[in-house]
User: Which sequence fits this backbone?
């Protein structure tokens, strides 16, 4: 089958690559910008496991072809796949209204972009008005982006669920055929209306964010009650009505898509005349939580931090990515700099983008080696739970630090073991 995928998002690259890997011929239309330039140099803009290798393989096979936005759809194509950024709604309409009408087969537009609820309906109206010229029964379906960043390729090719919003049976069948190679273990496609699919995407993100912020509140309360939040978390997770997913407290969540989806849901509620009180509080809790490690450090040193040296391990908003969008580390560093702290940072992938974000600063030093970052530090803060940080050389770490103080923003280390190893340990609700 021939498909045309539009967008420069992670979702666009994953969808185009995965669909090409199953035998389809895919034209990937990329807007002008950094992503397009990197792709033209045969570089993968996103550090996702397996993505660069599979993209190169599909391009070599001839099934994945890089195009501009001005390139027309393939003459044999009847499927247009939109995976544009949330601020590219006008571009989505431009793509739809520019589709050729001299086709015998109807157009199917798969909207995987995260736009406002009701966007697929408005695209359907634009497409139907266009299609009247050729008397074809064209369709727009919603297939929300449910990719898990850091495991994006596998979360497409082995998805736990697909939310398919469609009012056309033939369109449902065609999408099911496209997803069939990735939907063999069980039928993971759930069919609903387009608005229901779009709203479900936002509601899922809102629920996950709510659980995270709730657990962070509970962890902060555990500190005052002198109980270990890890025991509480296990007790909560054992209740089948709750389960253990997204119950891990930490120093706040980041990520452009995650945060933007929560804000979009809050805006949707506000636009309907309802006050998004719960979601507003979720976002406020998360922003406060991004400074929890700073507050613990502040209290530990009796509010006197000027001239101290602090090491940070991990600045990407989550492991297995180089992105720092809304990362807790950014707000943490700003708080440290405001108190005259010299910050030394290590991250396996995100140092380049951190350098662009921060610019040249005398109070920021980037290190390629995590132990060099910690050398001479008055404290080490773990912000992103990269696996390489889970089992460090504790003897080397202790001997190199000026003060053996560990602030564990993800509760990956065992408090008792760290204390027995000679460290002062401060976690999130841990004892």
Assistant:
């Amino acid at each position: 089958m021939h498909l045309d995928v539009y967008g420069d998002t992670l979702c666009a690259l994953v969808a185009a690559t995965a669909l090409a890997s199953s035998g389809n011929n895919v034209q990937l239309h990329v807007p002008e910008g950094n992503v397009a330039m990197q792709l033209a140099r045969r570089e993968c803009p996103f550090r996702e496991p397996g993505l660069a290798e599979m993209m190169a393989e599909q391009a070599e096979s001839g099934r994945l072809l890089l195009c501009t936005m001005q390139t027309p759809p393939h003459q044999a194509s009847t499927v247009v796949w939109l995976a544009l950024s949330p601020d590219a709604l006008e571009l989505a309409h431009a793509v739809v209204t520019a589709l050729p009408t001299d086709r015998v087969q109807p157009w199917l537009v798969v909207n995987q972009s995260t736009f406002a609820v009701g966007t697929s309906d408005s695209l359907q109206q634009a497409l139907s008005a266009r299609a009247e010229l050729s008397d074809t029964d064209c369709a727009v379906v919603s297939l929300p982006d449910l990719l898990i960043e850091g495991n994006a390729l596998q979360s497409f090719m082995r998805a736990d669920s697909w939310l398919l919003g469609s009012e056309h049976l033939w369109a449902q069948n065609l999408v099911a055929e496209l997803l069939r190679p990735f939907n063999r273990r069980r039928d993971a496609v759930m069919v609903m209306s387009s608005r229901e699919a779009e709203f479900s995407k936002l509601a899922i993100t809102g629920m996950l964010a709510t659980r995270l912020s709730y657990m962070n509140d509970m962890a902060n309360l555990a500190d005052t009650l002198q109980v270990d939040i890890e025991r509480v978390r296990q007790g909560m997770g054992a209740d089948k009505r709750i389960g253990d997913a997204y119950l891990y407290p930490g120093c706040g969540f980041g990520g452009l898509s995650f945060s933007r989806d929560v804000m979009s849901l809050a805006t949707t509620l506000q636009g309907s005349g309802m006050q998004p009180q719960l979601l507003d509080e979720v976002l406020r809790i998360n922003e406060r939580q991004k400074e929890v490690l700073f507050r613990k450090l502040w209290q530990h040193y009796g509010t006197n931090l000027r001239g101290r040296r602090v090491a940070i391990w991990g600045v990407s908003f989550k492991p297995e990515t180089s992105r720092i969008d809304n990362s807790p580390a950014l707000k943490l560093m700003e708080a440290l700099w405001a108190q005259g702290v010299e910050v030394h940072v290590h991250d396996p992938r995100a140092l380049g983008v951190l350098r662009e974000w921060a610019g040249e600063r005398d109070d920021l030093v980037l290190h390629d080696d995590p132990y060099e970052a910690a050398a001479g530090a008055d404290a080490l803060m773990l912000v992103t739970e990269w696996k390489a940080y889970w089992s460090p050389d504790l003897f080397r770490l202790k001997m190199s630090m000026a003060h053996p103080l560990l602030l564990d923003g993800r509760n990956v280390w065992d408090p008792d073991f760290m204390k027995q190893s000679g460290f002062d340990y401060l976690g999130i609700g841990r004892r």
Remarks:
- The chain has a mean pLDDT of 93.
- The CA atoms of residues 314 and 347 lie 5 Å apart.
- The two ends are 57 Å apart (CA to CA).
